[in-house]
Predict the 3D structure of the following.
Amino acid sequence: MEIGRGFYYNSKSASQAVNFIEKICKHTKGPKAGEAFILETWQKEIVQAIFGIKNKKTNLRKYKTVYIFLPRKNGKSTLASAIALFMLFIDSDKGKEVYSCAGDKYQAKIIFSQAAEMCKESPILKDNCEIYRESIVNGNNYYRALSAESSTKMGYNASAIFFDELHIQKNRSLYETMTSSTGAREQPLTFLITTAGYDKHSICYEVHKYAEQIKSGRIKDPSFLPVLFAADKDDDWKSPEIWRKANPNLGVSIHEQYLKEQIKKAQVNPAQENMFRRL
């Protein structure tokens, strides 16, 4: 874990976030539904970095923006849901406004709906909130799902924003509306998750290139955490070793047999190959 000059690692804060997720949040879908959400190593490292690395002078969190790029079915939505609940229930900010955002109403509600189910499965969370169709309310704090249709509305004062599948944003309106709404907060969190897109004129492509430049060291932005899981351009996409490189949850939420089956289809269908390599 790279901490950087002027920052330090607060193990107590990091453990608070990890313990909230692992002891209070549960899986809500698939074969693990109802089981405790025990973080995989890569997930735990992200949580520890977000909540554990702080500024030595201000004691505020280092990272304000987190960009996670990885293939489908690697558990990124589940992780986002749990972190959103931590921001709603535990984060020290007052009058918290947490938002799930996406390009359409269905996508916007994926993270939110999973978080709502986590609340229903946890007696502690359920007793401390009211769950509605599009919001979770905890006292003076709330969590809402928004889609691109909400982009013209102002007046938000977001403490945390969760953008799901950033690549499907049709334009930059919602992104700019929401990210600009965090300005009054001391340590807001913008959490961006996405699979690969194909539009090189999108906000996702712009953010992705920025993340790549930070990771390579060409740009310095200590407030931005780039987490990129992908095959390199010259990698053999048919190699199981490359599958593991790009899929940190291989063997957990995505299985090698499934990828083998998709490879067979991709080898005889160019369109299927393009989809396999992108997603």
Notes: Strands lie at 7-9, 53-55, 65-69, 97-102, 130-131, 135-138, 141-147, 160-164, 189-194, 224-228.
